[in-house]
Amino acid sequence: MAVQDIVKYSFGEIFSVSTVVFEKACTIDHSVQQNAYSIYWIQEGKGIYNIDFEQYNFEDNVLFFLSPGQVFTVDSEQIKTAYKLTFKRDFYCIQTHDQEVACNGILFNNIYETPFVKPCEKDTKKLNFILESLIEEFQQNETAQYDMLQSYLKQFIINSVRVKKENHIIKEDIETRLFKDFSLLVEQNFRKIHSVTDYASRLGVSPKSITKHFQKLGAKTPSDFIKNRILLEAKRLLIYTDKTVKEIAFELGFNDPAYFTRFFTKKILKSPLQFKKEY
Questions:
Q1: Mean pLDDT score of the chain, rounded to an integer?
Q2: Is 26 left (phi over 0), alpha (psi -120 to 50) or beta?
């Protein structure tokens, strides 16, 4: 049996850091469906994670970023050293601070790209320094601790965004800005709005313009983009709730449950009930 040391620092119920150090390979603490924003930093270890039904292999020094509602399961895992930072909107709202930090749609609330980054040695030292400072602040329990912890978390996220941009060459051009705006708008409204035309109207551009921008980025069509987001949520609801297919159909903006079943079956090649049964 592995000897393990798990230390958890928390600020109420809205922010926590878990330090996990294993003498032998073990599984880190994780939940199936996220109810807060989480950052997993696997410093030493390897494994296979499933995030929103997509499989990701990793090995050493990788940061995963998960948003509320995302499905996270483990296929295999051998972890020696890892950290987990968890925070809720009450502690740090990434939407409110998006102009300062620009992580919304890049690190978090971005289900359309790889949900992890691998920092280089220089970036690792920066992130490690911030994390050590954050843990030290937890231990001191001094005046204005809330503000200090929030500041360190913000620094950690900013540096992670820089790593992501550097590794994935994220350009700040009109195509990427429109893609980000469109994806965030879909994330907020996919349960009620299914039409590309309606999204285009809200963004002040034509549907053809959005399609052209998507083509330049090599992305799926705007229509498929919306459909895939609806399907992902349908999978989540089928597996992790007791809601009926009819209830899920209405929740996702389908007035006719039979049409929803046909829509799901055509894309997944299984009926909603078959999919639920398999999982």
A1: 84
A2: beta
